[in-house]
Specification:
The structure is a single chain. By secondary structure, the protein is an all-beta fold. Helices cover 0% and strands 49% of the residues. The protein contains no helices and eleven strands. Strands 2, 4, 5, 6, 9, 10 and 11 form a seven-stranded mixed sheet that branches. Strands 1-3-8-7 form a four-stranded antiparallel sheet, with no helix packed on it.
C-alpha cells in the first residue's frame, strides 16, 4: 500500500520561494508517475507537474519556468521547487502516485499561501 506524506508548505510573500517534499512509503519511482496537483478554495483540483519513471517532466502552463519537479531515489522523495510565487499559486498542494491499471494514490496535502 503506497503512502505519501507531503511537507514544506507555508506562508510566503509574492516573489518568494518554497520547496515541497513528498516522501513515499517505498521505492515506487520505477513503477509510478509522480505528480503534484493543487486545489484552491472553491476550485477543482488541477494538475501542476509530473515526473515519470524515465525522468521526463511535464508542467502546467501556469507554472512553467517557475516550478521544478525532481526526485531523490535514495530518499524515496519527490520535490516541487516553487520560485517567483504569485498570490494565484495559493492552494493546498497534493502529491500523487499513479501506476498504470491501479488506483491513484494521494497524500494529505500541504497548504501554500502567497500573500503580503
Amino acid at each position: 500500500q503506497v503512502q505519501l506524506v507531503e511537507s514544506g508548505g507555508g506562508l510566503v510573500q509574492p516573489g518568494g520561494s518554497l520547496r515541497l517534499s513528498c516522501i513515499a512509503s517505498g521505492s515506487i519511482f520505477n513503477s509510478h508517475v509522480m505528480g503534484w496537483y493543487r486545489q484552491a478554495p472553491g476550485k477543482q483540483r488541477e494538475f501542476v507537474a509530473t515526473l515519470n519513471s524515465s525522468g521526463r517532466t511535464n508542467y502546467a502552463d501556469s507554472v512553467k519556468g517557475r516550478f521544478t519537479i525532481s526526485r531523490d531515489v535514495a530518499k524515496n522523495t519527490v520535490y516541487l521547487q516553487m520560485n517567483s510565487l504569485r498570490p494565484e499559486d495559493t492552494a493546498v498542494y497534493f502529491c500523487n502516485a499513479q501506476r498504470l491499471g491501479f488506483a491513484s494514490k494521494w497524500g494529505q496535502g500541504t497548504q501554500v499561501t502567497v500573500s503580503s
